Amino acid sequence: MAELPNLLDEAMGFAPGSAAPFPRGGVVVLVEDCVETSGAFVLHHFLKRALSSGGGGGGAVVFLAFAQPFAHYDRLLRKLGCNLSVQRKNNKLHFFDLLEYPGLRKGNATNRGFLDLYREIQRVVEGCSLQEDNKGCVNIMIDDLSFLEIAAHGSMDDVLDFLHYCISLTSVMDCSLVILNHEDIYATEEDHELLTHLRYFSDFLIKVGPLNTGLAADVHGQLTIVNKEIFKDHARPMQKVRNFHFKVKENGVETFYPGSRH
Amino acid sequence: MAEAISRYLRDGSLEGEHAPALTIEDSLRSPLGSHAFHHFLTALLSHITNGRSQASGLVLVALNRSPSFYFDLLKRSGFDASLVDKSVRVLDCYSDPLGWKDLISRSETDRKRPIGRASVTGFKNVKNIDKLLSSVLDLGKGFAGQGKSKFAVAVDSVSIMLRHSSLPSVTGLLSNLRSHDQISSIFWLIHSDLHEMRVSTALEYISSMVASIEPVVLSTNNGHGSAGNLLSLEQNLCKAKFHVRLKQRNGRVKLLQEELHIEQNGIKFASVTSVSTAVNQSLLPKVQFNLQLSDKELIDRANVVLPFEHQGNGENIQIYDGRRSLPENQRDDTKAAPGSEKGGQIHYIRDSDDERPDSDEDPDDDLDI
């Protein structure tokens, strides 16, 4: 059953029934959440879209999981109508359980560890782009960046070097990169540098936060999407900033403009 | 004013002077620095391809975007691919800045490296600033055969360079490039909020022009998603203030300001004066009265004869001293007057000079009755 696209898809430039991959190739998406409102549902939504959109069985996903084990994502995505185990068997989903990854385990991540991880990613991405049946593009997803920072012993340069290489794949291999990160852990000026770097190189910035007016039963929070793409192939100028409310349900996420319900 | 910058970059260095250097700085509050960088890049390149500039070619040090992005950008700006290949050399510090890909491909010998364009040179160790300098100069020597020996240099992100190397070595590189006699002009982009204040100041000292991009609307800190914040975000992504500081040879510093607008095909600069006068005109309160008199009104007012002040116009001023009656002949005149004149008339003779013409003082209050 074809699902209706929501405001989140629309803001990312995804049209219903289009054969274009989601997210588009060459795009870097940064999702920022906070303690009050988790942004994991955005990642789940993107994961599902990436595996199902684009025609011809969807694109491939390289998922770097630091936060949760595979079973967690499998259970959640099953409710969204997407079987990750099958996708994994079909080589559509390349799941890196980085809690178990030898190079980064027990906090002994060095530059070498990141190099090895990147080598794996590059191998998978190159393999995916060679496959004939792969009509969509390859998506690299990181859940979440704060754990990567812990693995790097807080070395911002190592994290940024690794991310730079992942980003260079987006332009060379036409894949996309989605990063989940927390905004509120960078409270001081010195810590802010990593977040500022991330914001500079992202094409889409998605902020997930609580409502300004406080808690509500029907609304779980708000999303602000900033589109910073330099080249736009659309005939009409796209709105650069969008803001809407969301409600996370068992089988998906509902999005609506403030005041448009009831 | 943006044209003035382009002109300085085009005209290049004078005999016995350093090359003109432009710093473009922006921040996340107004992240349009890369648009401005692209503008100056395409403007300079069009002068180079037309043969109007001092430089015969451009070396682009690409740290922030891939070479293919720049070729795409130039293609969209209407440059012919063969001309671009002839006059642009890209030093690719983006694809493999630390040599990781090189290491990987060396260990997996079966895979072939993709062959890029001839005008792109890969650079695999951005931490080595000395090698970077010599690579830029080597690439520039490639243009020497075309009659003119000078070339221009563009660095797309000094911020990334500063992440890999210290401030003294980066400023050393830039000032070496600037003082090199083969370089006609140089410009670079820096994100000022990634660094301490002293970093941008240090770079401003070694540049002759500084273009800083500042937000048009300052965001109100009402928490994310508030209407005011969204509006300012949207506004700041479409336009910005473009402040320019031009240092002249005699030490004079010129400050100029323009407004930068993002449009469908590139950016546009608008002079800020027209905008500010429009604002002033609309902001000046519209009042129903005048605070000052015009010249004509002042003359008219001076000509008004106040009541009872008609005695000064050529006739004798008569003051009643209270003891003496009026002369007989005058008394007769007053008797005859009602017959000769139409209507009534009041003749008033002032008591003394002390009395103001319209005094409320009782004239008889000194009578001892």
TrEMBL record, chain A:
InterPro entries: ELP6, P-loop_NTPase. One of its GO terms (biological process) is tRNA wobble uridine modification. CDD domains: Elp6. One of its GO terms (cellular component) is elongator holoenzyme complex. Pathway: tRNA modification; 5-methoxycarbonylmethyl-2-thiouridine-tRNA biosynthesis. Pfam families: ELP6 (PF09807). Belongs to the ELP6 family. This is Elongator complex protein 6. It comes from Ananas comosus. The lineage of its organism: Eukaryota, Viridiplantae, Streptophyta, Embryophyta, Tracheophyta.
TrEMBL record, chain B:
This is Elongator complex protein 5. GO terms for biological process: tRNA wobble uridine modification. Residues 316-369 are annotated as: Disordered. Pfam families: Elong_Iki1. The lineage of its organism: Eukaryota, Viridiplantae, Streptophyta, Embryophyta, Tracheophyta. It comes from Ananas comosus (Pineapple). Pathway: tRNA modification; 5-methoxycarbonylmethyl-2-thiouridine-tRNA biosynthesis. The keyword tRNA processing applies. GO terms for molecular function: tRNA binding. It is found in: Cytoplasm; Nucleus. Keywords: Cytoplasm, Nucleus, tRNA processing.
